[in-house]
């Protein structure tokens, strides 16, 4: 029997309210558990952040290229961040360095343009 994060059992007749449960199930059905378990731990860490997931999703929607300002606006518009200034700061100091260092994006700091590498 599956467990929720609060350690209460998940009844088989109960539909999970956490969308990540269905997303994980979809991923297992699509890729298979051995494939998912073979993903390097570093990649799991890069994708663990809602902000980084939103950045990658937005880049995918915009043909792989966006300015930092556009990404910050997207984070605010999707309620991932509360305000544009906070979003820009988090992008500059946390999320873009991690995504860039992980080889998922190229970040031109001079022009403040982010390009997906996948």
Question: What descriptive keywords fit this protein?
Answer:
Arc Repressor Mutant, subunit A, 118 residues, 3-stranded antiparallel beta sheet, 6 helices, mainly alpha
How would you describe what is shown here?
The chain is 55% helix and 9% strand. The protein is mostly helical. The protein has a domain at 41-116: Arc Repressor Mutant, subunit A (Orthogonal Bundle), CATH 1.10.10. Strands 1-3-2 form a three-stranded antiparallel β-sheet. Helix 5 (68-77) packs across helix 6. The protein is globular. Residues 1-21 have low confidence and may be disordered.
Helices and strands in order, then pairings?
Blueprint: H1 19-31, H2 33-37, H3 41-47, H4 50-61, E1 65-67, H5 68-77, H6 84-101, E2 105-108, E3 113-116
Order of helices and strands: HHHHEHHEE
Distance between the termini: 36 Å
As residue ranges, the low-confidence spans are 1-21
* Largest sheet: spatial strand order: 1-3-2
Major sheet size, sense and barrel closure: 3 strands, antiparallel
Class derived from helix and strand content: mainly alpha
Count the strands?
A: 3
The CATH architecture of the domain at 41-116 can be named as: Orthogonal Bundle
Mean pLDDT: 82
Shape: globular
CATH class of the domain at 41-116: Mainly Alpha
Helix count, per DSSP? 6
């Amino acid at each position: 029997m599956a467990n929720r994060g609060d350690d209460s059992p998940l009844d088989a007749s109960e539909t999970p309210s956490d969308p990540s449960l269905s997303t994980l199930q979809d991923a297992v059905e699509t890729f298979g558990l051995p494939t998912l378990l073979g993903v390097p731990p570093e990649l799991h860490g890069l994708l663990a952040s809602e902000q980084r997931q939103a950045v990658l999703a937005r880049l995918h929607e915009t043909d792989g290229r966006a300015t930092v300002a556009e990404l910050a606006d997207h984070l605010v518009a999707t309620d991932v961040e509360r305000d544009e200034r906070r979003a820009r700061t988090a992008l500059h100091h946390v999320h873009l360095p991690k995504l860039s260092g992980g080889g998922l994006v190229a970040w031109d700091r001079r022009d403040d343009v982010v390009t997906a590498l996948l």
